């Protein structure tokens, strides 16, 4: 059994890929999903895992602080930030920054994470656009998780999160990515835990995750191969 700490960005694909890997290699895995910041905190507090799949910056931090094996870093895929609304809602035009601003001002409520990479970026973006006073009073801001679920719960009309995380909630409607000029691409990287004794298996797993046979599945779920 291998233990994996993994960004929520992979929640819609990793269980399926791990099942396939187990059938091929007879290796099972347990996974804990969370924001990169949350999982980094767990590791720095003494927890450990065989494999960590986090933002590229997060894995570099673990290598620098001695929690990941040097030379084990492997870039997996990337995604950008998108907007989601209810499945039956009218899709707003967000092809340019002006239209995007109008869309987030018009919505009665909006949700994003406080600690996820996309949520931190979005709050900073709203501040740069001088819209904090308009957005924060109507915002639902959980620490992490799949914020598009807040739409299904009737707590929010709009969600901002990584596209792969939005696609993990198929009952909502993906409006599309934020305009390119104000979007951010996040690169996800794997690193092997410093104390893991499964290095060869984990290297095989990382190669399997990025195998060309899985790339169509990754793209369908909002993750673009490197």
How is this structure best described in words?
- The chain is of the alpha/beta class and 226 residues long.
- The protein has two domains: 2-78 and 187-225, D-Maltodextrin-Binding Protein, domain 2, CATH 3.40.190; 80-182, Periplasmic binding protein-like II (D-Maltodextrin-Binding Protein, domain 2, 3-Layer(aba) Sandwich), CATH 3.40.190.
- Helix content is 36%, strand content 24%.
- It contains ten helices and ten strands.
- The protein has helices spanning 14-25, 36-44, 56-64, 97-106, 117-128, 132-135, 149-152, 163-166, 199-209, 215-220, and strands at residues 2-7, 29-34, 51-55, 74-86, 110-111, 139-140, 158-162, 172-177, 185-192, 224-225.
- Strands 1, 2, 3, 4, 5, 6, 7, 8, 9 and 10 form a ten-stranded mixed beta sheet that branches.
- Helix 1 (14-25) links the parallel strand 1 (2-7) and strand 2 (29-34).
- The two termini are 28 Å apart.
- The mean pLDDT is 96.
Tell me the domain tally: 2
Low-confidence stretches: none
Task: Figure out the total of helices.
Answer: 10
Q: Report Rg.
A: 18 Å
N-end to C-end Cα span: 28 Å
Question: How much helicity do the residues have?
Answer: 25-40%
CATH class of the largest domain: Alpha Beta
What CATH calls the topology of the largest domain is: D-Maltodextrin-Binding Protein, domain 2
Order of helices and strands: EHEHEHEHEHHEHEHEEHHE
Main sheet characteristics: 10 strands, mixed
Shape field: globular
């Amino acid at each position: 059994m291998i233990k994996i700490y993994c960004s929520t960005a992979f929640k819609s694909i990793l269980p399926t890929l791990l099942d396939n890997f187990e059938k091929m290699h007879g290796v099972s895995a347990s996974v804990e999903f969370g924001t990169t910041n949350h999982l980094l905190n767990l590791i720095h507090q003494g927890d450990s895992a065989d494999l960590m799949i986090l933002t590229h910056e997060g894995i570099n931090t673990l290598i620098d602080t001695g929690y990941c094996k040097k030379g084990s870093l492997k870039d997996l895929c990337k995604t950008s930030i998108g907007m989601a609304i209810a499945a039956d809602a009218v899709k707003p035009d967000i092809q340019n920054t002006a239209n995007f601003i109008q869309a987030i001002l018009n919505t009665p409520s909006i949700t994003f994470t406080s600690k996820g990479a996309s949520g931190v970026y979005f709050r900073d973006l709203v501040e740069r656009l001088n819209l904090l006073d308009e957005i924060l009073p109507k915002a639902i801001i959980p620490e992490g998780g799949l914020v598009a679920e807040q739409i299904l719960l009737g707590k929010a009309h709009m969600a901002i999160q990584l596209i792969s995380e939005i696609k993990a909630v198929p009952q909502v409607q993906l409006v599309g990515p934020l305009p390119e000029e104000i979007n951010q691409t996040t690169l996800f990287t794997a690193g092997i835990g410093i104390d893991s004794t499964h290095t060869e298996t984990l290297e095989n797993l990382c190669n399997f995750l990025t195998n060309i046979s899985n790339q169509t599945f990754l793209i369908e779920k909002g993750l673009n191969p490197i």
